Amino acid sequence: MVITLLGTGGADGIPGLFSSDRVSEYAREHGGKDIRTRSAAVIDDVLKIDFGPDTWAQCHRFGIHPDEWQAVLLTHDDEDHLAVPEFQYALYPFVNRDHLPFTVYGNGHCLKKITDRFPDWPLDLVLTQSFHTFDFCDYRITPVAANHAPPQDAQNYLIERDGKTILYATDTGVWAERTWRFLEGVRVDLMVLECTEGIVPTPYNGHLDIEECLAVVSRLRHQGTVRDKTVIVTTHHAHMGDCTHGELEAKLHPLGIEVGYDGWNREV
Ligand SMILES: [Zn+2]
Questions:
Q1: Which of 143, 169, 174, 236 is the least crowded, having the fewest Cβ atoms under 10 Å away?
Q2: How far apart are the CA of 267 and the centre of ligand 1, in A?
């Protein structure tokens, strides 16, 4: 599998749309890896993960044609991950087509938002539930319960193909014990892990700061889910975490963790 991180920013991206804080101003001045659009990814150009407000720009920037997507996997319904109105451009009158060319997988909150907006559309929607595995094309996919935005069943995704496993864990917070127990039996080749709060922890427990991120990785190593050769890369960085890309690298590289950026990709 080849995974590409199309966006690696938190809710309002970096620079924050209306922010003039240090990290946002640094990004405006320096550009490059410090510019972070809203978090999303694509695997093999076939599985699109999340469908946020920067989807158009990400596809244009990275030469991705959504006609190749066979499924869109939604992690949860927060607006940086699910921009419902954008689906309209996949159908008539914007294109000469009366059905979406891909299946949309998501929890009940995601599907309700979509059907509320498009009640009469012939959408191929499939409800996902944490720890209920399904097969799609050549992939075996298991939604894993995140600790984020309750009461909805926010999900991280475990995606397997040809003996390789990717865990996409954005907007995860520190998992509840049932997720840890489930992952005890899993060996991951590549993990995408959020590091939203950087060096500025907040009381909100639906996101990870650097220390929590390291604690999660440490426990995963200890229980064997993550091994020495597992690729670990971060995503969903917020400007309020007060770290530039270079500052994140200085903290995380020595610990064997790569810092994600828009366009980062890897084959496993
Ligand atoms: Zn988010």
A1: 174
A2: 24
Dihedral over alpha carbons 86, 12, 44, 170 (to 10 degrees)? -120
Sheet holding 265-267, edge to edge: 125-127, 103-106, 71-73, 47-49, 40-43, 2-7, 265-267
CA distance 186 to 183: 5
CA of 98 to the centre of ligand 1 (A): 31
- Return the axis-axis angle of helices 210-222 and 245-252, rounded to nearest 10°: 40
User: 77: CA distance to ligand 1 center in Å?
Assistant: 9
Q: Tens digits of per-residue pLDDT, 103-134?
A: 999 999 999 999 999 998 889 999 999 999 99
Number of Cβ within 10 Å of residue 111's Cβ equals 19
Pairwise CA distance, residues 127 & 10, whole Å:
25
Kindly report the average pLDDT of the chain as a whole number: 96
Taking the centre of ligand 1 as the mean of its atom positions, its distance from the CA of residue 249, in whole angstroms, is 21
Side-chain half-sphere exposure of 112, counting CA atoms within 13 A: 8
pLDDT in tens, 135-172: 999 999 999 999 998 899 999 999 999 999 999 999 99
Distance (angstroms) between ligand 1 centre and the Cα of 244 equals: 18
Query: How far apart, in whole angstroms, are the C-alpha atoms of residue 78 and residue 11?
Result: 9
pTM for this predicted structure: 0.96
pLDDT band at 7 (very low <50, low <70, confident <90, very high): very high
- Taking the centre of ligand 1 as the mean of its atom positions, its distance from the CA of residue 1, in whole angstroms, is 24
